[in-house]
Amino acid sequence: MSAGTLYDKVWDLHRVAELPGGSTQLFIGLHLIHEVTSPQAFAALRDLGLGVRHPERTVATVDHIVPTTSQARPFADPLAEEMLVNLERNCAAHAIPLHGLGSGRQGIVHVIAPELGLTQPGMTVACGDSHTSTHGAFGAIAFGIGTSQVRDVLATQSLALNKLRVRRIWVDGALPPGVYAKDLILHVIRVLGVKGGVGHAYEFAGPAVAALSMEERMTLCNMAIEGGARCGYVNPDATTFAYLEGRPMAPSGTAWERAVAWWSSLASDADASYDDEVRFDASLLSPTVTWGITPAQGIGVDEAVPTPEQLDPQERPIAEEAYRYMNLSPGAAIAGLPVDVCFIGSCTNGRLSDLRAAALVARGRHVAAGIRAFVVPGSEQVARAAEAEGLDRLFREAGFEWREPGCSMCLAMNPDRLEGRQISASSSNRNFKGRQGSASGRTLLMSPAMVAAAAVRGHVTDVRELLAETGRSASAASRQPSLTA
Question: Which of 18, 28, 151, 351 is a plausible cystine mate for 215, CB 3.0–4.6 Å?
């Protein structure tokens, strides 16, 4: 078993009891809820005659079902309106803060919690959403949970969990221009597989990870779940503290200094032991695109769709299924594949740095004829910051639609959906069959910059070609204060 890791320390700090079946009752420091997985949980509480144990540790927002064109109430979709009404009523009944539409703080749950300073190092975080692992970027241990577990956390502020093994994902080198955290995590999943992390927490570490911004670290941890890991995290450091300082819910004054000292002590010890370690070299990576129906079916944009002979025998059945579903031939180049829809957004890549990176590619260019391209900020705060920089105007002038915040086409529980056999270039996190709203729709996962490149070319394109045309630095773009000054 691991010892001396951040995971071990946080687990021990939050242990309430050892349960008869061998699992641990773990206290949950922050519970995030939204409109999709909470209604049934609140109904169960009513049936049991229970209240919310710690409403001050629960925070709500609306994200999955909200339309991104007009958010006027009532919603055109009566089911979506009913879900939001239920959330509003439940939060009011239990004194739970709700960051609703127009509050200035609404957005995708995994975007707003970090930007408000709710997510902090050393926390245990739970949410009824698979991609809760995002919050591990702050040195938190964050779990996606099901509806029955949402009920349990509301009622007891704790969860029954089995302790995970810890695998360190060590990344040397530095990401080359045009290559992003999204490419890194897609490559990790390609190598280790969608089941490679089962039973594990992933600790992302090494020089390449230390050099990432907080928003890039969130992308990395967001998709740890796609590799089978229950959670992923990065040890807190100066980058973490700089991001958190001054945020509404972060400590301030003398409490800030105490918090930083404590947070620093939680980082994995230099002599920590891990159950496993896998090493990667970031400098060898290229922009990555998924070609199939799992996030593990990814290749460099300069590669060809693998042939069955190139794959492990155990991977061939799912590859054969993917060839048929995606209508791709083994050995075919991925670059040049036509797309129909280009989506920039989601809890994976809907933050300000993601929009900046995409805008860098879109600036001075225009969406290709016949392509539907749209940008969906991850939160109201992201939208307002982007608009202050003029990114909304830049995207519109380039032929993109600028939308209101929400989950949008990531999972299509709203009007943003593929139609028929359309192919989507998407900055989201899952390329499963039917994931983006059409039972036969096809999804290619890639970075926001790669989505923008596909939009202006009309097909899968190596973003490095477009960046070279104008001499722009993709890595610098996501961090500069403005692209339009």
Answer: 351
Q: Give the CATH fold of the 165-284 domain.
A: Aconitase; Domain 2 (3.40.1060)
The CATH class of 6-161 is alpha beta
Distance CA 279, CA 379 (A): 34
Over the stretch 341-386, which tens digit does the pLDDT of each residue have?
A: 999 999 999 999 999 999 999 999 999 999 999 999 999 999 999 9
Q: Give tens-digit pLDDT for 236-291.
A: 999 999 999 999 999 999 999 999 999 999 999 999 999 999 999 999 999 999 99
For 299, phi then psi, to 5°, come to -145, 160
List C-alpha distances in Å: 255 to 240, 244, 260, 261, 310: 16, 13, 9, 10, 56
For 401, the 3-state DSSP assignment is: strand
Q: Any residues with CB less than 8 A from the CB of 405 and at least 6 apart, and which?
A: 63, 66, 68, 106, 107, 108, 350, 376, 377, 378, 379, 380, 382, 383
> For the purposes of burial, counting CB atoms within 10 Å of the CB of 354, is it exposed (0-12), middle (13-18) or buried (19 or more)?
buried
The overall pTM is greater than 0.90: yes
